[in-house]
Amino acid sequence: MAEWRRQGLKFAVLPTMGALHEGHLRLVSAALHRADRVIVTLFVNPKQFNSQADLAAYPRTEHEDAAKLAPLGAHILYAPDGAEMYPQGFATTVSVSGVSEGLCGAYRPGHFDGVATVVTKLFLQTGADLAFFGEKDFQQLHVVRRLARDLDIPIEIVACPTVREEDGLAMSSRNTRLSPSQRQAAPKLAAILLDAVARIAGGSPVDATIDEARSAMAAAGYARIEYLELRAEEDLAPMHRFDRPARLLVAAWLGETRLIDNVGIPAGQGVIRPAAA
Ligand code: PAF
Fold this sequence. Notes:
Bound molecules: pantoate
Number of helices: 11
């Protein structure tokens, strides 16, 4: 990397936990488009799992991941082990307040501290100019932007749109855990989100629309809904009226698999109702 820097090359980092799918591969392509050199990191970060069972069940497919990356032309696959990343005596946590609270932060205590700590390390270890993240983990994107800004890390955070299966299901390493019948039910989540977003953009009241979407999710087999909330695109502030660019974000369980998704509503779309007097 020092040599790349000496040569004046621009380089990008793409942090992953492996189990790569098309969504990751699109991030690699986007990174190759913007940077001269691309580093893909692969580290299943124990610090961001708040359940040992979830950590143990996380798919580990390092050889397949390397094979998927090879034809794309990424320059380095960096796959440290736990002791390299967190050597004996490691005692530092990067904790971002504000944007990491609520949503996933409320249901996965310590998760964003783990993400912020490892991402900070990866930024500093690689010294990359650019870092690529998917919008599917929208709250994570905000956490990462905040930490880079607050810690004066000179890196541009580039957000890439969520990549979906043909039936609308957001791609995720966790989708492999769905049974065939759950896999059939899974895309209803995106369909319900899109319908709710269209209605909110068209002027339907936010809270009532969300209540209806929750009922539709329950009917589709999502027995446990952690959250379904409208938040401001800019700073994730809770919204009960659609009066600025927004995101509808969801986390819910299908059997033993936790799925997250989100859809944006740009400003100027549909009717913006004035506040009641
Ligand atoms: O999004 C992920 O896969 C992880 O949270 C990340 C950013 C690689 C940090 O471990």
